[in-house]
Amino acid sequence: IFNLVVYGDDYYIRNIFMPGYSLWYVLALFMWRLTLKNIVKIKGALVLSVLLSAGIMLISSPSEIILGLERVAGFHIYFLLGYYCEGNVIEKIKKVKASMAVVVLMMIFMLLYSLIRLRILDFNLSKEVMMHQLSIQSFPSISLGLIVYLLAIPLAIGIGILILAIVPEEKGFISSIGRDTLPLYLSHTYVVKIIGSLNSYFGFNSIIFEISFLLIISAATIMMFSSSSYREGFYRIINNLKQMYLDMGFRILLKN
User: Fold this and answer.
1) Which among 97, 122, 167, 254 is least buried, having the fewest CB atoms inside 10 angstroms?
2) What pTM, to 2 d.p., does this model score?
């Protein structure tokens, strides 16, 4: 509906098996939680998850994503890692000095930035790889595609560990964000689309200025959609919509 109203694009309405924006994540959560009890009984479930992700990326079409399965399977690796990650592991990560984690994180981003500036890496392709959105068939060779994804997974895990080390243990705004991310996740994508349209319209002459601008917008978006007042309003709307659809269903059943 958002795409239709803002852009006049009815693609997602005509293609109900193509989850738009962040809706793939809602589908992913449902599938992950539904299958978790059975998957964790399998020995080497994590390795199987990596192979499943690689297999789906291998057979998927470069131009068509069915049910967002590429991302559903790709991010399932991190979901399983989170499940297997015990409290003592998190405690060990939290012992890493936040200042050291910040320095290493900045070094990683500076390295990636340099590789992009030297045109060794392509920014858009790298972004799609990290989002598990780029089919392996899009690469010059299958072996190259597999290598890229096998390098991207530990990179993403490493960045996640560093961010976890930086997040303070004390209860505060930053630590409270992870308590309930659904309102933030389902709401932020529309801001991203609007900012993306403005970015393409006005353009940026400097990538540093563009990154700085996007960081400020990201921080403001997180603060707005993670506030308690927004969460209350979000769930009030969701509950009203849920009740409306239930009442509508009951009326249809009673008529029949």
Assistant:
1) 254
2) 0.70
The helix/strand count (H/E) of the chain reads as: 13, 0
Reference 183, options 243, 239, 248, 132; nearest CA is 239
CA 37, CA 35: separation in Å to the nearest integer? 6
User: Could you identify the residue written with the tokens 């990201």?
Assistant: 218
Backbone angles phi, psi at 163, to 5 degrees: -65, -40
Concatenated DSSP letters of 129-167: HHTT-S-GGGSSSHHHHHHHHHHHHHHHHHHHHHHHHHS
DSSP state of 203: -
Strand partners, 64: 61
How deeply is 18 buried, as exposed, middle or buried, from its count of CB atoms within 10 A (0-12, 13-18, 19+)?
middle
Distances (CA, A) of 254 to 15, 50, 99, 245, 249: 31, 48, 63, 14, 9
